[in-house]
Amino acid sequence: SSSSSSSSGDTHAVIGCSLPVGICLAYFASNFNTATVTQDSDGSSEYGIFQINSRSWCADHHTMSENLCTMLCSDLLTPNIEDDITCAKRIVKDPQGMGSWYAKLAPWLSGD
Length: 112
Fold this sequence. Notes:
One of its GO terms (cellular component) is acrosomal vesicle. By secondary structure, this protein is mainly alpha-helical.
């Protein structure tokens, strides 16, 4: 909740992991640009600061999506990242978890 103390999991667990991991993801995925859209070779796209994929997580007009975050991908492109964080938390709860972003985080994980 927004009234949580700084030691709260909600406050620091931006995407179900530590705040530093969330910040690194935002940096490596989009360079902190909330308006980033990346086209993938399979025809899907990745949206917003966390580069959330349209194949599974949000609905756009180009990809058949499961829309597991029940939102429009365009909603991920606004400066308000509250919905991006909510969807990222949902993604982390999936069995693949942070693996959804492994390619984005690989440079950070390898120390490059």
